[in-house]
Amino acid sequence: MEKYEVVEENVGYGRFAMVKLMRHRETKHLVAVKFIPRDHMINEKVAREIINHRSLRHPNIVQFIEVALTPTHLAIVMEYAAGGELFYEVLNVGTMTEDRARYFFQQLIAGVSYCHDMEICHRDLKLENTLLDGSPANRLKICDFGYSKSYLLHSRTHSMVGTPAYIAPEILSGKEYDGKLADVWSCGVILYTMLVGTLPFEDKADRQNLRKIVQRVSVVQYEFPDNVLCEDSKNLISRIFVANPAKRITMKEIKSHPWFLKKLPEELREEAHYIYYNEENTKHCLQSIEEIMNIVNEAKTTPVASSPNL
């Protein structure tokens, strides 16, 4: 990690990890670096997160750069999104116009659809895991692949993971489910929240009650406020919030829905996306999977220092 210098100590954190803003000493490029304590914190989930993220290269996904080892931490180096979480955009404006919500939703679907085409489901899509790059265009970037699963590399999805307000009803059953269709549900929660300003399944009188949220999700209990949304947006949301995943709108159907297609930017059209699926696009990472796994496995060993040396 000698080639990076710290710019800001803590720009994000999770249950076990912290994220620092750092700068490459030579190129001066800013990066976000996620530090995970070594030893027992490093497990199959961490390896899966890194390998899945490494395989994705798309303008609406935070770019994975490399993984490195410090005496005390495993460091995941990623693209820095200067605009912060979409969550704060919603928090600041309350409700978005349909045009602005559509603009972000179109990018969200482009990124998630690409993940699915690469046979990866995210499983924790939420406003906090969608970042903005801070550019004049304010491009959306999907981040945090900690719960992701590859249909090519991993077992079928059955774990009850994700954030209660965003998870699909089938996840609550504890049985095997289609992670891609569960992602579609989470995208619907993000869309509803951007348009309405509140989460669809929370009890407005008891917002922090997770048990009530889960109950409402399981029976798909939500409502549209009066005179806020157009019929097309309500139609799209109602086709996403369907308890039976087999009857839920698919990603392909979302991309052909009239509300989604309105004012769709040229760069998000299907014909513009072929470049992200060619072989050259997947050769971007300098580190091989074998090299990454060697670093991850080494990170499982006991740290050699008692105090952080990041």
UniProtKB/TrEMBL annotation:
Transmembrane helix keyword on record: no
Keywords: ATP-binding, Kinase, Nucleotide-binding, Serine/threonine-protein kinase, Transferase
Catalytic activity, reaction form: L-seryl-[protein] + ATP = O-phospho-L-seryl-[protein] + ADP + H(+); L-threonyl-[protein] + ATP = O-phospho-L-threonyl-[protein] + ADP + H(+)
GO biological process, one term: response to osmotic stress
Annotated positions binding ATP: K34
EC annotation from Swiss-Prot or TrEMBL: 2.7.11.1
GO molecular function annotations of the record: ATP binding; protein serine/threonine kinase activity
Protein kinase domain sequence ranges: 5-260
InterPro entries documented for this protein: Kinase-like_dom_sf, Prot_kinase_dom, Protein_kinase_ATP_BS, Ser/Thr_kinase_AS
Keyword Kinase: yes
Family indicated by similarity: Belongs to the protein kinase superfamily.
Name by which UniProt lists this protein: non-specific serine/threonine protein kinase
Native species: Phaseolus coccineus
